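User: Please fill in residues for this 69-position structure.
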């Protein structure tokens, strides 16, 4: 996990916690937007943070014309 991905996860957690705390303390449902944005940030970090599977090389064919003398 690189630094940018760690920062994205930290931002995700921060936004979700702040949204939940502000929603609980003020009672205003508008802070649910923070929770939604935090979840979307987490989904984006998960999608972009995955690595592509390693490509497997194609098997080499050994035809008679490719043989060396």
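Assistant: Residues filled in for all 69 positions:
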């Amino acid at each position: 996990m690189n630094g940018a991905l760690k920062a994205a996860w930290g931002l995700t957690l921060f936004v979700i916690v702040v949204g939940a705390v502000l929603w609980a303390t003020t009672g205003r449902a508008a802070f649910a937007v923070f929770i939604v944005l935090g979840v979307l940030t987490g989904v984006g970090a998960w999608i972009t943070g995955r690595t592509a599977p390693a490509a497997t090389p194609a098997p080499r064919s050994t035809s008679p014309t490719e043989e060396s003398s």
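For context: Helices lie at 3-26, 32-49.
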